[in-house]
# Entry
Amino acid sequence: MDAVIRIENLSKTYADGFRALNNISLDIRRGEIFALLGPNGAGKTTLISTVCGIVNPSEGSVLADGHDVVRDYRAARSCIGLVPQELTSDAFESVWATVNFSRGLFGKAPDPAYLERILKTLSLWDKRDNRIMTLSGGMKRRVMIAKALSHEPTILFLDEPTAGVDVELRRDMWQMVRELRDQGVTIILTTHYIEEAEEMADRIGVIRKGEIILVEDKQTLMRKLGRKQLTLQLQNPISTVPPALSQYPLTLSEDGLQLTYSFDTQSDSTGIAELLRKLNAEGIDFRDLHTEESSLEEIFVSLVRDTA
Amino acid sequence: MNWYAIRAIYRFEMARTFRTLMQSIASPVISTSLYFVVFGSAIGSRMIEIDGISYGAFIVPGLIMLMLLTESISNASFGIYMPRYSGTIYEVLSAPVSWLEIVIGYVGAAASKSIMLGILILMTARLFVPFSIEHPIWMLAFLLLTSVSFSLFGFIIGIWADGWEKLQIVPMLIVTPLAFLGGSFYSISMLPPLWQTITLFNPVVYLISGFRWSFYGVADVSVEVSLTMISLFLLICLFTVRWMFLSGYKLKN
# Structure
């Protein structure tokens, strides 16, 4: 496996004794979109900041494209672009000046044509001479992305890129992230929106209290933990599940009016048709039924809760 | 060396200077002019000559130094404090730049501005009082050394300060008194012997004395001592900044 970022036994203890990262080891594959999920204060931003050089690690090491982020920081940082969570920008600067500044800061020769392309992709070209303070929140977010892309990074960190962004812009960003991935850029994003990870990510990592509790391909994760439920609202209450149906994992509600059948989405046959036939044979009528598939959100919530 | 980064920071800082041109340039020039009107023309005409120099001309080097110190400190401290305050410092910290490149960019810009101001004040002063410059090369050398040293000092304050108040407190409570008591407006030899000795502990004395020597060839302390003291101060500041960046003091946690 070609790891573009290799985090080994990384720990961070702040001066006040707070242990934000606890012995984290994680490989990010070249060219993937990796979503880092976790509740507030789990250590997502600290992890990103450590890789990017904003926070000094207490223990462990990080390699970015083979370069140690502390010892060989020039080479490591040159290939990393960072879009931080906070909208911090030089309010009095123009958009054009600020992206040029970023490019220079990362040691790249001026390339107006490239920056023009970036700004056009992000619909910022018309605003290039505007001061950043005059832009809307969504536009400022785009400026932050343009700054991060200005030096042609091969690894892009997006820390909560769509927080406080309207639906349309969010869709635009997803599109842009996919295009970047197609160009070979590795993308690591943190998010609160499970929907976003579900939509975008190739792999998902869950971080909780400074520890990575799970890393999995999104598809595998959804299959492994994704369960479907069939819920039947009965016409008349029953006291027990009939013995003929004992082979099914059925649960009966307390009032005897609701039967719930859980099944695995992985198996070839769900067994629903047969179950319904047998119910009919037992003379159990139902007035309504519906199925539910657990989403990544439920998976996430149950994960974070289970390990609490 | 990441020259593109140095250039980017330098340009960014200079753009800030020119964006606030009135505040950056006009206010020091106006306040210095006021000093000349009051001390040079109005009061100065009734004062006796010091070391054979008219009072108006005598205070020119001291006043320029006074402005140079306060402006260097305030420019450089503001330059680095602002991105810390707004959070944009993240970009500099995550960029492939060394501490020295960051310092050259920020301090270089602050010192450039101070030197421009110094020359501007010099020209303004010429409108009020006639004076000559005996050692122009040394004059520029002192101008340069002082601007760089005190911009470095301001840079340290900008990293150390964690509020606007702290940012103002060192220039106001320490540097301005030291500059006023450092012989901006009088010669050290005019003080009683005890105070002359005490004054020698004031580092600004060496700056003003050396600078005045480059104008008129007379000094309170020898030029070599002046130069050594400024260079020493510069080195101390440089190593402090280096330590701040390498340890991450108030920059990285």
In short: The radius of gyration of chain B is 19 Å.
